[in-house]
């Protein structure tokens, strides 16, 4: 049973959004082709990054919590599924919010201020923390994405709201992966490559890594669905 823990976390995260995708009020299943196009691109990039970081020991996986059925360059199947299941749940949330949440949920001035703050924060983080690989690369990639959003005047307010909405589930699922409620972590981290600042058992970098993952999926989902990305 222990060997199914990571798989269970993935399935638990995606199960309710998957079932709800067939609800007639918001039939997300009709948009699967847009999601999977977007997710294929984003997942590919994240998996390449994951393979490299795993190979150099930035993080790794506890074999006791894996089914050990199939690996991709030392990346367990469960880790690959993570990049599908978590974005599915989040893009589903984004899809629902896009239908029912007004565009002006929070003021444009506040949005621009938040965006500028995150850009400055990630820039400073990448400069100050250049010696920590996980912190540095997460900061750099998020900085570049946010700069693209700013320069292209893209509206990601609902994507931000969607990420905020799933944060409680993020803390629960990621907490399990990093050792909360169980004897050992499913995913371990090399503290020499991050700030070693934890929220419960979760490295603080994971919050920004998750944000990068979700915003990327939402942006490409909109692009494939509408042929463009919503601008301010």
What tags apply to this protein structure?
two-stranded antiparallel ribbon, 7 helices, globular
Task: Please tell me about this protein's structure.
The protein is mainly alpha-helical and 232 residues long. The protein has one domain. It is built from 7 helices and 6 strands; from the N terminus they run H-H-E-E-E-H-H-H-H-E-E-E-H. Strands 1-4 form a two-stranded antiparallel ribbon. Strands 2-3 form a two-stranded antiparallel ribbon. Strands 5-6 form a two-stranded antiparallel sheet. The radius of gyration is 18 Å and the shape is globular. The mean pLDDT is 94.
Layout: helices, strands, pairs:
Layout: H1 5-20, H2 32-55, E1 59-61, E2 71-72, E3 75-76, H3 77-100, H4 108-128, H5 133-151, H6 157-177, E4 187-189, E5 198-199, E6 202-203, H7 205-226
Antiparallel strand pairs: 1-4, 2-3, 5-6
Helix pairs in contact: 1-3, 1-6, 2-3, 2-7, 3-6, 3-7, 4-5, 5-7, 6-7
